[in-house]
Amino acid sequence: MVTIFLLDGNTIRQYFTKNPLQCVLMLAQYDRCDIAPYILQLSTLNLDVFRIAKYKSLSKPQQASLLPSDTIPIRPLSHLIKALGFTVGVGTVAFTAAVISDCERQSLQHRLFFSTEFLAASGLMKPNPSGTKDFRLWWSQLTDGDKCAFYLVGVNLAVFLLWKVKGLNGIMWRYFSNSFASKSLCVPMALSVFSHYSAVHLALNMYVVLSFTSVAVNNFLGPDQFWAVFLTAGVMSSFSGIAHKAVLRSPIRAVGASGAILGMLGYTCMKIPEARLKILFVPGFDFSARSAIIGVLLFDIAGLLLRFFSEVIVCMVSVSFSYNFSNIIRFRMFDHAAHIGGTLFGVFYALVGQDLIWNRFGRRVEHAYGHLRRQ
């Protein structure tokens, strides 16, 4: 996930009144070029007054345009219980539906074993070479992993295009960006997993999807279990991200499938820990899958720690020298907490979760579903 920064002067005043130190720490996160001209600057001699430099010079409509209409004051920490319940609920529903779908899929494949579609896909019946028939044959010859990857890319691309429709901006901000300072708390935790605001972010994530999905689906999960794991990892990632923001009292918004993708990456790498991986555009350098996951976790943990210490240092320096360091503080591109949550879920699922959830819980769901069908 990446973070999207949104502030206004009244929000800053409100935060500063309640907790001046926390307000300064939060401001250290904001230096994006399109937001920087509107960020408050430290006063010359003390911290008890913030001056609104460019913000006051804007008209009311211009000021309002800086914030989505659904922005609210940061929620109390108790709302994390609601978010946790949503996370558990989504995971339970996702795996229950996946088990039922897997049962139906196996039953359907058994019934269609000698059907016309099976014969055509097997090459035992000569297909019609015209248009739609060619596409159906090509699609039928793809593996389940390839199909899941194409579906995932298609959904993410569609949501990305919706971001470009100006009339939908209000809906997209409210339901497709994850924040602890939004009117909608739970639904965006799931929908933001398929949401990308930047074309570069989308392209990088979809490259990883196309690289790993077929391996995970074809060798370990199958299509139904894959969707359950992907969605649960994504929501777990979203929960980790907003929990971190809730503790920091940060209104930053996040979008992207990175947490869910890292969950799948963590799962796959733990299943084949000795597999050799390479970095794109870095020839001659490879490493084990286990090392990759350790590296990812260390990178995100370091990102969290360095962010905290950098904000404390900036606060102390700003107080001491009364200087605005907004041009020095780097833009926090990654939602490290969300990445850690998604990765750890993938590792957990590979080591113990698959047996606990898919096998044991799945058998109970399958038994209950079979009993309902017989009635």
UniProtKB/TrEMBL annotation:
Membrane topology: Multi-pass membrane protein
GO MF annotation terms: serine-type endopeptidase activity
Example of a GO cellular component annotation carried by this entry: membrane
Catalysed reaction equations from the record: Cleaves type-1 transmembrane domains using a catalytic dyad composed of serine and histidine that are contributed by different transmembrane domains
Chief localization: membrane
Keyword Plastid: no
Record Pfam families: Rhomboid
Superkingdom of origin: Eukaryota
Transmembrane segments: 149-165, 185-206, 226-243, 255-273, 293-321, 333-352
Compartments where found: Membrane
All residue ranges annotated as the Peptidase S54 rhomboid domain in the record: 190-352
Keywords attached to this entry: Hydrolase, Membrane, Transmembrane, Transmembrane helix
An annotated GO BP: signal peptide processing
Enzyme class: hydrolase
EC number(s) reported in the record: 3.4.21.105
Family from the record: Belongs to the peptidase S54 family.
UniProt protein name: rhomboid protease
Native organism: Parelaphostrongylus tenuis
